[in-house]
Amino acid sequence: MKRFLSLMTAAVLSMTLLSGCGGSGEDAAKEDGQAMKTPVDIGIIQLTEHPALDAAREGFIQGLADAGYNDGDKVNIEVQNAQGDQSNLQTISQKFVSDGKDLILAIATPAAQAIAAETKDIPILVTAVTDPAAVGLCDSNEVPGGNLSGTSDLTPVEEQIDLLTEILPDAKKITVMYCSGEDNSAIQADMAEEAAKAKGLEVIRKTVTSSNDVAQVTESVIGTCDAVYIPTDNVLASSMPLVSSITNPAGLPVIVGEQGPLEGGGLASVTISYSDLGRTTAEMAVKIIEGADISTMPIGYSSNPQLMINTDTVSELGITIPADIEASAVKVTTAADSNQ
Fold it and tell me: Could you give the CA distance from residue 152 to residue 120 in angstroms, rounded to a whole number?
């Protein structure tokens, strides 16, 4: 955990220190260092609705307002949700470019990939993207080098696997479950498998292709392992109430990547704040609006992960949480609209 925190803190500090000159949109090219004319037209393209992505969007809008850029005043914000549909992402991206947006926020990797394919000129900020460089969105996370930067939702995967073994010391075999169509989920699955094998755990990987096969894949896991690990995955985050409606009655604990799935019935997590990520991304947006060069802005990271447990799930599973975890964890309950 200390190593993770130091890396994240260093990344955030470098993001703050490294800002240059020049951001520009396709319809409003500006000289380096020149601020955008207000009101600035901002488009937000969001992959789908679920608590983490919604919190990132709300944090971004609030962060702009806190800096004096209120929607309808100094900025005009248009929010479009693709409802998890790739063709919608392409349509929204093309519309934002043709409308001449001055700045675009893309929430989640598929949304970022869709808009990045449409423009190399309009500044694009991303959030809820685990590793922008690894999925080809920028040259490097330290120096993006183009028209795209933003914040990563990389969670402390190794610490999450540590948590699994601390809560479930008798676990021998785990299933890592994620959506095969989400690049960021595959990256985290690799990290989780490496961390789990280092602890002597046998790892099974199970993938879903969409929300349509979540129930079938989840049911196939029952009786085959001692616990399930689900990283930050948009399909499974949206489907977590369904997952937990199968796993919890079967006595199968699920460690999750963030708070949304935890409130959907997961057991525990070491999670980051998506609202804070949105606010950090807003700080970057303000710098770009005021003339900074997006190509020199490092990808930002969260530096304050929190240990959380779902007390409803603890009771349902009949698990005894170790005293040190019980004492330090933030307690959450299953969201009312997640009950099956």
Answer: 20
Confidence of residue 338 (pLDDT cuts 50, 70, 90): low
CB 275 within 8 A of CB 250: no
- Whether pLDDT at 31 is above 90: no
For residue 71, what is the DSSP state? B
In single-letter form, the type of residue at position 278 comes to G
Mean pLDDT (the chain, rounded): 91
> Residue 179 is encoded by which pair of tokens?
């959506």
What single letter denotes the amino acid at residue 243? Answer: V
Q: Which residue has the tokens 């926020």?
A: 105
Tokens representing 87?
Answer: 């063709």
Who's near 225: CB < 8 A, 6+ residues apart?
A: 173, 174, 175, 204, 252
Q: Give all domains of the chain, ordered by start, each with its CATH number.
A: 2-153+273-296 (3.40.50.2300), 157-271+305-338 (3.40.50.2300)
Tell me, what's the pLDDT at 18?
A: 40
**Encoding tokens for residue 73?**
């005043």
* Neighbouring C-beta atoms of residue 256, cutoff 10 Å: 32
Q: What is the maximal distance between C-alpha atoms in the chain?
A: 63
Run of H or E including 239? none
> Which DSSP state fits 2?
H
- Looking up tokens 């955030």 gives 12
Bridge partners (DSSP) of residue 44 are 79, 105
Phi, then psi, of 183 in degrees rounded to 5:
-60, -40
How far, in Å, CA of 163 to CA of 149, rounded? 31
- The helix/strand/coil state of 173 is strand
